Amino acid sequence: MYWLITNRNIEANGFGTTFADVTYWTAPADADPKQKASWSQETKDSFRAKLVAVADTFPPPTTTQPADQKHITFLVHGYNNSWSDAMGLYQRVATSMYSGANGLGECISFDWPSKGDLMGYLPDRSQARQSAEDFADVLSDLYDWLLIKENAAAKDVNNACKAKTSLIAHSMGNYVFQCAMNYTWTKKNRPLLVSLVHEALMVAADVDNDLFRSGEVVESGDGEGIANLTYRITALYSGRDAVLGVSSGLKHFGKRRLGRSGLDQTTALPDNVWDIDCTNLIHPDVSGISVHGSYFFPDESDCYPLMRELLRGIDRSVLIAKGMVPSALSKTQTVGS
User: Fold this and answer.
1) Cα dihedral sign for 11, 17, 21, 25?
2) How far is the C-alpha of 168 from the C-alpha of 170, rounded, in Å?
């Protein structure tokens, strides 16, 4: 199925660019998610019940290798995305990695009201910050559910959760992710009981590249929520990304963009964070502006096989040894995750 959680306003033929209450939607797998008519609105409870029912059909973790376990993955789009653009991205990701017998599981779009306008960058940043509060509510509910399943599994291993949780964020969607995880981390009193997210892919991230400068220290760092609630975080970046070059110039914050420069290696980094320079995976004829979204177009890059293996939890040293990571461009240590 297709799954949609959004805080956009509802319009006759789609969704708009202003805030509204969070709503929940589903669509059949053979529908076109870019068409409003494909979607049926659900209550929060019915959406959760359907998702739990699907996840319950996943192979049990007691008899399935960790890398082969199915996922419930959130996808968070970036700025300058109208609703139809966001659904186009969602359809490409779902089709490429979550469909068919070898699909990774189920993918849910968390869709926030980007302006869909290149000149709306700064308004989009404000929208992203506000949307993070709504996404944090979704993540908090997920955290509570995972705790329930963990307690149930402690009594009977057959009651363990059958799904891994993961997240893919693109561009400014990473700012939504960053703020939402900090809200969740604080709301839950900085818990270290369970990983809310197994694998997080920060693709062309429009956030500061010293996001994780707090390292292993628990304080009030920008990336603390992500680092402490996620098992492994991988930042995919390219120095050819012209969009993030413009982004850095607009903000004048003095820090480079994570999605353009990779992690700031002069700061302390948590052990579960690493980066991959994807420049050599992006086709050389792709323009600098198009590089920003090329990770998700199989005719413009070779990134999907890498993203799939990252989500499966394959160790970073194995990925480098298999040649899936351009080792000459990997700046971080190659020890196990």
Assistant:
1) positive
2) 7
Q: What whole-number distance in Å separates Cα of residue 142 and Cα of residue 306?
A: 26
* Residue 43 token pair: 């209550």
SS3 sequence, 20-53? EEEEEEEECCCCCCCCHHHCEEECHHHHHHHHHH
Of residues 135, 97, 129, the one with CA closest to residue 89: 97
pLDDT digits (tens, 9 = 90+) for 118-146: 554 555 567 788 899 999 999 999 988 88
CA atoms lying within 13 Å on the CB side of residue 268: 9
Determine the straight-line distance between the first and last CA of the chain, rounded to whole angstroms.
Answer: 32
- Please provide the average confidence, as pLDDT, over all residues in the chain: 88
Closest C-alpha among 222, 179, 170 to residue 200: 170
Q: What is the pLDDT of residues 101-113, one digit of tens each?
A: 899 999 999 999 9
Asked if residue 267 lies in contact with residue 213, where contact means CB atoms within 8 angstroms, the answer is yes
Beta strands in 63-149 (DSSP E): 71-76, 105-111
Residue found by looking up tokens 């818990």 in the block: 191
C-alpha closest to that of 48 among 106, 131, 98, 94: 106
Read off the pTM: 0.92
Distance CA 86, CA 105 (A): 20
Classify residue 213 as exposed, middle or buried by CB count within 10 Å of its CB (0-12, 13-18, 19+): buried
Helix, strand or coil, per DSSP, at residue 201: strand
CA distances from 220 to 111, 180, 209, 270, 334 (A): 27, 14, 16, 14, 28
Chain length of the chain = 337
Which SS3 state, helix, strand or coil, does residue 203 take? strand
Residues 6+ apart with CB under 8 A from 224: 182, 185, 214, 218
Break the chain into its structural domains and give their ranges: 2-329
Q: Which of 175, 71, 77, 174 is nearest to 126 (CA)?
A: 175
Task: Report in angstroms the alpha-carbon separations of 48 from 93, 154, 216, 275.
Answer: 22, 23, 34, 33
